[in-house]
Amino acid sequence: MFPSTQTGGVSQRANPAPVSCGPTTDQRAWPLQSIQDAFDALQTNGVLPKNQRPAAGTRYYPRQYGSGSRAPTNVAVVNALNAIPECVTGQANMKYFEFPLTDPVFTDGPPQSQGPDRVVAISANIGQGGTRSFTYCLAMTHRGGTGPDDPTFRPCTNAP
What we know:
Elements lengths: L18 E3 L6 E3 L1 H15 L8 E2 L2 E2 L2 E3 L9 H8 L11 E7 L16 E8 L9 E8 L12 E2 L1 E2 L2
């Protein structure tokens, strides 16, 4: 897990590392600091009321990732999450959240300004008014899909 920005630095979560998102023809490499910055922004904004969070058009971030049942459905992402003990899918009362992985850190913009890459975190379903705590899980991307309207996410891989 990456701790909050108040405690500094990267900590325990399954050897966080720089990642490469997408196929070789459309690949973006993200250094560890960019992943940390996006996760820090997810944590900071994840405790704010929805209307105070950064938005891309009508999408506020962090936003819940997964189907209406709060569970991711993309097979490759589910398999990647299930390889991380803290992030295994199917845990009772847990939700997944996504936040844009951009440089500089995403703060607001028009639709599509959030780009194709995201960080994903898991948090207990705390209900209205509770304090949420996030655990970093992985980075994922829309890159490498069948076209510009492909909504499927794929997990990013550790950078070589």
